[in-house]
Amino acid sequence: MQYDEFDLLYVLLPHGWSTCILYLGDRTRELYISHVFGDPIGDFIDATIAILKGASAVEFIWWDEPGGNRWQIIRNPQQHHQVTVIITEFSSAYGKPIDREKILVEFEIKISHFSTVVYFQMKKIAALLREKSFEKNRSGEFPYAEFQKLESFFNA
């Protein structure tokens, strides 16, 4: 299913947590993300950069406690400017094999649309982190080097 009405809100919460709200036309999905098990923002940015550079597919996991979401972003082999995004959910705890995975959402979107949405959410977070009160309990949670690489695609 093609979505021109895709958007997302990435909320960097204090103390190693985030929430990502996906908007897909007539429905929303809320994903809860723990930063304890990795770098979810960096993984999101790196996957977006890889697709912008021409990767045929990328995958990353956002862990919750317990469970999480697997993102797969697959370039359309016939329409190279589009990707299929598949987000699954699972209840397995970190360090355990992932099983009983089910598809939460699957949609096709233009790479330019997807990457623009990701970029501006990350730009928002970077700007908010300049505020001392916002940054206070979020220190170290944002991958500035990866963000600068993503930003280079939009400032070219």
Please describe the structure with a list of short key phrases separated by commas or semicolons.
156 residues, alpha+beta, 3-stranded antiparallel β-sheet, 29% helix
The gist of it:
This protein has helices spanning 40-52, 111-128, 132-135, 144-154; strands at 6-13, 17-24, 27-34, 57-63, 68-75, 82-90, 102-110. It is an alpha+beta fold. A four-stranded antiparallel sheet has the order 4-5-6-7.
Structure description:
The chain is 29% helix and 37% strand. The chain is of the alpha+beta class and 156 residues long. It has a four-stranded antiparallel sheet with strand order 4-5-6-7. It has a three-stranded antiparallel sheet with strand order 1-2-3. The radius of gyration is 15 Å and the shape is globular. It starts with 5 loop residues before the first strand and ends with a helix. The model has no long low-confidence stretch (mean pLDDT 95).
The biggest beta sheet is recorded as: 4 strands, antiparallel
Calculate Rg over CA atoms.
15 Å
* Helix/sheet category: alpha+beta
| Low-confidence runs | none
Walk me through the topology.
Blueprint: E1 6-13, E2 17-24, E3 27-34, H1 40-52, E4 57-63, E5 68-75, E6 82-90, E7 102-110, H2 111-128, H3 132-135, H4 144-154
Antiparallel strand pairs: 1-2, 2-3, 4-5, 5-6, 6-7
Helix pairs in contact: 1-2, 1-4, 2-4
